[in-house]
Amino acid sequence: MNGLANMVNSSFCYIALLYRIIKTSFLFIPLQYIVIIDINNYEKGNNMKKLISILLSMILFVSVLSIGRDEVHAKTVKAPSKFETSSEEYSNTLTWNKVKGVTGYVLYLKNDDGKFVKEYTTKHNSIIHSNLEPDTEYSYKVKSYIKKKNKTTYSKYSKTITIRTQVKTEQNLYTFMTTEARSNVKSVGIFIKNKSSKKIEIQETGYLVDSDYSSFTRSLTLVKIIDDKITYPKSIIIEPDKSEMVLFKVKGDPTWYDKDSTMVFDYNYSGKLFRHFANTFENSLYIETEIQQ
């Protein structure tokens, strides 16, 4: 009799566990619909095996239903489509249609093993993938996603988009700096000539470096004077075979400048960021390009 009672207690433990699993799987099934084993079956030799078999089958059934719910829910999130692409030597640009009601998008890049791995997450329907190798194919897929109450649901993959970066060309940059020594310097200018086949984009920050006294080294901020007003552009574009005087403002205290000073600035060329170290020793090359014209 005690054995029978123990087995009955065990069966209710299994049933309670099963009911908890069902409830956490978002299937709210009343307890009376759960299959309960007839107590008389416990007097037979294989009663416990039958009980465990039925319980495991029901748990598997519930798990399958739960997975099905997630897949159905994912189908309500549309994947991006209607892609437009462009490329430069070191970057690819992808743009797609905006998907209504989504939180954002995830860009996946195909790796050397042939698998698509997450590369970027964005709220915009356009991505620039930079610092790539020239004349190289890159394959992408994109998903939309919705995030609600700490739960993120993704769409299916978009179609595969393959883009080849452009063939490499050499950037040719020439600079000219004054040799006049000055103290109490609050701004510095530099002439930059672009002899490349494509535009260059001077970035907004730089450095004025004094090789003899590090205390004179300063950070620089790109400025432009328009109608006697100082503006702070994010960048300045110099088209091919054009030159421009680029002005930087000294950040912090005024400093010293002479012919041994070095100006460091970054520029974007064909989708890749480069750094240039300019000094007065480059002046002769700049002058030669002027004479050649």
Walk me through what this model shows.
With 293 residues, the protein is of the alpha+beta class. The chain has three domains: 2-75, no CATH class; 84-164, Immunoglobulins (Immunoglobulin-like); 173-292, Sandwich (Immunoglobulin-like), CATH 2.60.40. The chain has three helices and 19 strands. Strands 9, 11, 12, 13, 14, 15, 16, 18 and 19 form a nine-stranded antiparallel β-sheet that branches. Strands 3, 4, 6, 7 and 8 form a five-stranded antiparallel β-sheet that branches. Strands 1-2-5 form a three-stranded antiparallel β-sheet, with no helix packed on it. Helix 1 packs parallel to helix 2 (47-75). The radius of gyration is 34 Å and the shape is elongated.
Question: TL;DR of this structure?
Answer:
By secondary structure, the chain is an alpha+beta fold. 21% of the residues lie in helices and 39% in strands. The longest helix has 29 residues, at 47-75.
